[in-house]
From TrEMBL:
Location of this chain's protein in the cell: Nucleus; Cytoplasm
BP GO terms, sorted: co-transcriptional mRNA 3'-end processing, cleavage and polyadenylation pathway
This protein's name: mRNA 3'-end-processing protein RNA14
GO terms assigned for molecular function: mRNA binding
PANTHER family registered for this protein in UniProt: CLEAVAGE STIMULATION FACTOR SUBUNIT 3 (PTHR19980:SF0), RNA CLEAVAGE STIMULATION FACTOR (PTHR19980)
The organism's place on the tree of life at top rank: Eukaryota
Length: 966
């Protein structure tokens, strides 16, 4: 009971539930809880654990250099100054600022001068300094049918290595980019030095320092500017910093490799291959790699055949990596052309002839099963190849692969329709906030990736029954491509990891989560998933040490996201102070406004009958105040959003610790739920939700008397928060304490409605208490609440408010609303809108003789009018022989009546009564609120359906479908 008493004492009282009016504020680490501010900044953290030496920015270093003046203006530094600056900044060149060949140290993964006969990977690609995309297990295995990256490239006498400077004093190396969040808050208000218009590099560096993740244009502009000035060493440094933030930007890796290729710097080019090839999986980068391999192994002058073997192994390795890509058509065509260029003639009698024929057949049979743009042309080549060798055996091979080819061809058509607007290889962008610029474009790209993944999961290539592993690899490949383009979109990382776990690919799932958290350290979604996976994969064991170790492992993802969220709040404050200082400086530089400091006559004379002119321009002081107010409001909104995320991360951590370590107690080796609650209050930046969650955990999990005190604490700290008050009222009512529930209601409502801008927040409290009083209270109380609601909310419908006393809040059809009850008191109330015929017309009624206009039947002796000259030839009616006497007159009268009836066009036939009855029973279309079928889209879907694919699917299991990888 000592721990119980200590925890209750920390909440401001003993184990008894004191009345709300007399409960004192809870005590935390301080003696007086009134000093606790939920919006206070986090408590100081040990500086040694977060100390990171500040990286000297370009702006600082450039300002300290000797400036060159031309005509009295400061010009950009010369190339010599840039080189001296680069030598001074030894550790700021990023992971890819490669050392020169003569200063590099030996690398165990170096490229040998001559490739081995059977290449074996000698260096794990994951150990390279730049992190990239998810690599499958096959990437780290020995390549049996191909060649690895290091092994395929013929090396040089010297070796280059990406420098990684180890910290000497336990701090991060200077080459590690320092996030803006870690800068000292004390310098936030200081404005950056103004740049001259010709200092393009300095301006771009300032933009990058301000927003490294978001300002992609500044990165690309800086790279392009330095390239144009031929400052390639500086370009390499910028690329190194760039790829630390955007390691999956495939197009930029390609541009970097092409730059080194144009400079003929092959060692650095090979270092790029070592780092990026298996991580980025870019077709263009793989093509550059193959071109480099063929350049280093000239098959035209190769007499031993070893060079051709290396190139062949390189092609096999590349095909195994990206051969299933929809854009790999040129890669397959180059591979087949390479095989054709080898010695031997298909169809010959020599061993080289037979070997070449087998290689070509194998390559063709694999290629025609891949849905890609070149599949049709490759099939035609394969058809000519087989029929040119032997028509009988050729028809046999073609018949075996024809179903797979037809499936691949139709699948590519469907895949092209899905991905025709997809942008691959671009620099990943941060997701725009809802309602802001770029949101639709970003969501469109994310939707295309999701559709592609869903299309692969539908198994259009019919692989599930015959080669389930190939199907998994295709889906995994698309997920890897998706997370490259949507690196800062946590949802795609979550989906990829979840799919891997569902397929029992635990290693790949963990890799997706780890790399997703590395790219999005502030993502609570990925942190929750990672913690959930750790908790599920670790077994609960007896003993204190086991609980401590398991709790430490589970809370690691929570601690990571919390640290970044607290730093983000500091960044918001720092940006606010900088922006406010810029606003002050901008208006201070303006000429004085004579209207400032003089009273406004309109404001002095304004009374009930005089209104000031709202169109009058604002003074300089007023404009400045407006900008400052708007900027502070924006910062406050961002801070509240971040604080809300922080609160729910603490809640999730608290619930996890309760499952692992139980109730616990503060400042104990096993802190448990209560220790986390105290830690959260110590760091601050909390919303009222954490008090609600903690109190409900205490109540429902342990039936602990601390729950009322935690609710009291939350109500005192957040007196105008309607949510905590509502949950507090619900809790008190559930425990039978209706008296204190009314006290909380009245106190909170009075404080909220005292401010006109907050009146709307009290509506939820009035609605709940009105419903409760109507069911379980006195009529006088109900009437009083309704009167207060009518005064506060004039738009409230009094009839609906009155009916809520007797209604229910359940959904239809169990709901009851007295305002909408309408009984059927008479059959006239349910009469159909359409009149129903009482006599059923006979369907067998004979059709009358069709009416022919009399104007068209003319005498042949009478000439046609000019307007009728182009009409077809008229046919004359053959009349019956006239009857004599009364019989003839009766016949003429009958014919006249028929002609008179037929002269008026008849409308559509009336519907049968049964149809009218059915239409009267069916509800009107306006009452249908479910999904509606779009007939236009349905017709388009049917029109776009490939019936050939449907016929092939019926026997797809017989012929094997997709044959890639066999």
């Amino acid at each position: 009971m000592e721990g119980e008493d200590a925890f209750l004492a920390s909440l401001g009282g003993d184990a008894t539930n004191d009345p709300i009016e007399t409960t004192q504020p809870a005590d935390g680490d301080d003696d007086d809880e009134e000093d606790y501010d939920p919006a206070a900044p986090s408590a100081p953290v040990d500086a040694g654990s977060l100390a990171v030496p500040e990286q000297p920015s370009r702006s600082v270093s450039r300002s300290s250099q000797k400036q060159t003046t031309i005509g009295g203006f400061v010009a950009e530094e010369s190339d010599e100054d840039e080189q001296e600056d680069a030598q001074e900044q030894t550790n700021t060149d990023g992971a890819l600022a490669l050392e020169t060949a003569n200063t590099a140290s030996p690398n165990p993964g170096a490229l040998p001068q001559s490739p081995p006969a059977v290449p074996v990977p000698s260096q794990d690609i994951s150990s390279l300094p730049v992190s990239g995309d998810v690599s499958s297990n096959a990437h780290s295995q020995s390549v049996a049918n191909g060649v690895g990256v290091d092994e395929a490239m013929a090396g040089t006498d010297t070796v280059i290595e990406a420098p990684v400077t180890a910290p000497s004093n336990g701090t991060a190396s200077a080459s590690t980019p320092i996030p803006a969040e870690r800068q000292d808050l004390s310098s936030a208000a200081s404005l950056p030095k103004s740049r001259l218009p010709n200092d393009v590099v300095g301006q771009l560096e300032d933009r990058i320092a301000e927003d490294a993740k978001g300002d992609v244009d500044a990165w690309l502009g800086l790279i392009a500017h330095l390239k144009a000035r031929s400052k390639f060493d500086e370009v390499r440094k910028v690329y190194g910093r760039f790829f630390e933030i955007f390691p999956s930007a495939g197009d930029q890796w390609v541009n970097y490799a092409r730059m080194e290729l144009e400079l003929d710097d092959l060692p650095r080019l090979e270092a790029i291959f070592n780092i990026a090839l298996l991580k980025v999986q870019s077709i263009d980068l793989w093509n550059i790699y193959l071109a480099h391999i063929r350049r280093r192994n000239d098959i035209a002058t190769d007499t031993s055949g070893q060079g051709r073997q290396v190139v062949s192994q390189a092609y096999e390795f590349v095909i195994n990596q990206v051969g299933q890509d929809k854009d790999s058509g040129s890669l397959w065509q180059d591979y087949i052309s390479f095989i054709k260029s080898g010695p031997g003639t298909p169809g010959g009698t020599g061993w080289q002839d037979a070997q070449k024929m087998d290689l070509l057949r194998k390559a063709y049979q694999r290629a025609v099963c891949v849905p890609m743009s070149a599949v049709t042309s490759l099939w035609k080549e394969y058809d000519a190849f087989e029929m040119g060798l032997n028509k009988m055996t050729g028809r046999k091979f073609l018949q075996e692969k024809s179903p797979a080819y037809v499936t691949a061809r139709s699948s590519y058509t469907a895949l092209y329709n899905i991905t025709q607007h997809l942008k691959r290889g671009i620099v990943p962008l941060l997701p725009p906030h809802p309602g802001h610029q770029g949101e639709e474009e970003f969501l469109d790209q994310a939707d295309i990736w999701q559709k592609w993944i869903a299309w692969e999961k539908e198994d259009p290539l019919v692989l599930k029954d015959e080669d389930a592993q190939a199907l998994q690899q295709r889906i995994l490949f698309v997920y890897r491509q998706a997370v490259m383009a949507l690196r800062f979109y946590p949802r795609i990382w979550f989906d990829a990891a979840q799919w891997c776990y569902d397929q029992n690919l635990e290693a790949d799932g963990d890799s997706f989560l780890d790399q997703g958290l590395e790219a999005n350290p502030e993502s609570c979604l990925l942190a929750f998933k990672k913690a959930d996976q750790v908790e599920r994969s670790t077994s609960a064991e007896e003993g204190q040490d086991s609980q401590v170790a398991r709790g430490k492992a589970v809370r690691a993802p929570y601690d990571g996201v919390l640290d970044h969220l607290y730093k983000h709040i500091e960044l918001i404050q720092r940006r606010e102070q900088t922006d406010l200082a810029q606003i002050e400086a901008k208006y201070a530089a303006m000429s004085p406004d004579p209207r400032d400091g003089t009273p406004d006559p309109a404001a002095q004379e304004e009374d009930d009958d005089v209104v000031s002119n709202t169109d009058k321009p604002l003074t300089k002081k007023a404009r400045k105040e407006v900008e400052i107010t708007e900027r502070r409001a924006e910062s406050l909104t961002q801070t509240r959003l971040t604080s809300r995320v922080i609160t729910f991360v603490w809640i999730a951590l608290m619930r996890a610790m309760r499952r692992i370590q139980g109730k616990g107690k503060p400042d104990d080796p096993i802190p448990g739920m209560r220790g986390i609650f105290k830690e959260a209050r110590t760091r601050g930046r909390l919303m009222a939700d954490i008090h609600v969650a903690t109190a409900l955990l205490e109540h429902y999990a342990y039936k602990d008397p601390a729950a009322p005190r935690i609710f009291n604490l939350g109500t005192r700290l957040f007196p105008e928060d309607e949510n905590v008050a509502l949950e507090h009222i619900k809790f008190l009512i559930s425990t039978g304490d209706s008296t204190n529930a009314r006290v909380i209601f009245e106190t909170t409502v009075s404080k909220i409605t005292a401010k006109p801008d907050n009146v709307h927040k009290a509506r939820v409290l009035f609605a709940f208490f009105h419903d409760w009083e109507a069911k379980y209270g006195e009529l006088s109380q109900v009437t009083k609440i309704e009167k207060r609601m009518a005064e506060l909310y004039p738009d409230e419908n009094l009839a609906s408010l009155f009916a809520q006393r007797f209604g229910t809040v359940t959904v239809a059809p169990a709901s009851f609303d007295p305002c909408n009850v309408l009984l059927v008191l008479s059959p006239s109330q349910v009469r159909s809108k359409s009149s129903v015929q009482t006599v059923i017309p006979s369907i067998e009624t004979t059709e009358p003789v069709p009416f022919i206009p009399t104007g068209y039947v003319q005498s042949p002796k009478r000439p046609l009018e000019d307007s009728d000259a182009e009409l077809p030839a008229r046919k004359l009616l053959r009349g019956e022989s006239p009857l004599k006497g009364a019989a003839g007159r009766r016949q003429q009268q009958r014919q006249a009546r028929e002609l008179g009836q037929q002269s008026m066009p008849s409308g559509p036939k009336p519907l049968p009564p049964a149809v009218f009855q059915l239409l009267s029973v069916i509800p009107p279309a306006r009452q249908w609120n479910q999904t509606l079928f779009d007939p236009i889209k349905m017709v388009d879907l049917i029109r776009a359906t490939d019936m050939t694919k449907a016929r092939v699917s019926s026997n797809g299991g017989q012929y094997g479908g997709y044959g890639y990888g066999r």
